[in-house]
Amino acid sequence: MWSLPLFALAYAGVSQAWMPASGKIRGVSLGSQFVMERWMANDEWNKMGCGGTESEFDCVSKLGQAQANQAFATHWNTWTTKDDIAKMQSYGINTIRIPVGYWMREDLVFSDSEHFPQGGLKYLEQICGWASDAGLYIIIDLYGAPGAQIAGNSDTGQIAPSPGFYVDWQYERAYKFLEWMTNIVQNKANRAYRNVGMLEIVNEPLQSSNSQTESMRKIYYPTAWKRIRAAEEALHIDKNKRLHIQMMNTKWGSGDPHQYLTDDWFAAYDDHRYLKDSHDNGLNQAGSGKTPAAYLKQSCIDDRGGNWPTIVGEFSLSVANDLENSSPAFAPPGDHVDWYRKWFAAQIQAYEKQSGWIFWSWKANYIGGRNDWRWSYKGMREPKNIASC
Question: For residue range 273-288, what is the model confidence (pLDDT) as tens digits?
Fold first, then answer.
């Protein structure tokens, strides 16, 4: 069990924002559920009529609002089902992380210049209700921030030419989203959200030390914190039933998120660890760094410590792009199941030295022309894959 007070919600009798009884987060992200990424859902994307576009913004622009709303409603209702939640529970998963975009609060969208699907909230409530009934802990993550926190990436909901998030008026839209979400999940009359215990205030911001990330740490983080807590105080939420507020950790590369906080009651931190992009200890360097042994060694010695408590909120079984599909040491993955099983075990052992882990993603729908279970926990658990994980 996590030490008090940071995870004090784990004690019996607390119906809101409880933590897993095991003391470790063992979860999956619902990637492409509410913020679609074509690279991991290509068949689904084309089926929706979004082919030829790269982001939700572009797809809605292409289809028009009414047709897009219908296409996305079908997707939201079928990408993650009640049966999926039951499977997660049966596999020992105790947590789901749900990426969402600010456009889910539709009155924040500038209708003359922003184009996003409408109607997602009821499907968020549906999934949270299923997960709460199954006893799963729920993290909601502001994955797509107003103006886009990074440029050129569909996981912000748009292919922005530059990151437009780091200004006061965009921060204000994010604060309003976070207040709105806080009021929804802390509404005791709506039981669907009763196991939502954590709210991440922005996913994967810029990885740099500059005026934008300084502004985020100095202005956005403390103000977002205060606005969430003020919303809870207005609802008379007991201090021990408040949401955990999560930020990317120092290892992410945006600076220390704790630097300007004056209150860290129920703070939490997010670490994304994709070894496919790492050069630690010579990994992915020519020669011995491009071997299964190098990947396994790095996971065995991996230290994700720093800000506490940290959850490794994203990782996968994908190796470097130049190895993933062409190296006979790693591909095809079906020929190397035993090694991937060992690597998965080494990763989660390292991440459970922290507060746990969340695999990216629960589901994938054709990556690089095939359904690759190295990015799909659901696929990984299918027969003949890594069924024992």
Answer: 999 999 999 999 999 9
Label each residue of 308-375 as H, E or C: CCEEEEECCCCCCHHHHCCCCCCCCHHHCHHHHHHHHHHHHHHHCCCCEEEECCCCCECECCECCHHH
Strands 244-248 and 267-272: parallel
Catalytic residues, by residue number, are 204, 314
Cis peptide bond prior to 61, omega within 30° of 0: no
CB 361 within 8 A of CB 29: yes
Query: Sign of torsion, CA 235 101 304 345?
Result: positive
Structure tokens at 36: 């679609």
Best CA proximity match to 220, nearest among 228, 232, 209, 230: 228
For 229, how many CA atoms within 13 A lie in the half-sphere containing its CB?
16
The two tokens of residue 199 are 């709210």
Helices (H), 271-320: 292-301
Q: What are phi and psi of 8, to 5 degrees?
A: -65, -15
236, two tokens: 């008379």
- Please write the tens of the pLDDT for every residue from 323-370: 999 999 999 999 999 999 999 999 999 999 999 999 999 999 999 888
Identify the residue whose tokens are 């975009």: 101
| Mean pLDDT to the nearest integer, 297-315 | 97
Rounded-to-integer distance, Cα 386 and Cα 337, Å: 6
Nearby residues of 305 by Cβ (< 8 Å), 6 or more positions away? 353, 354
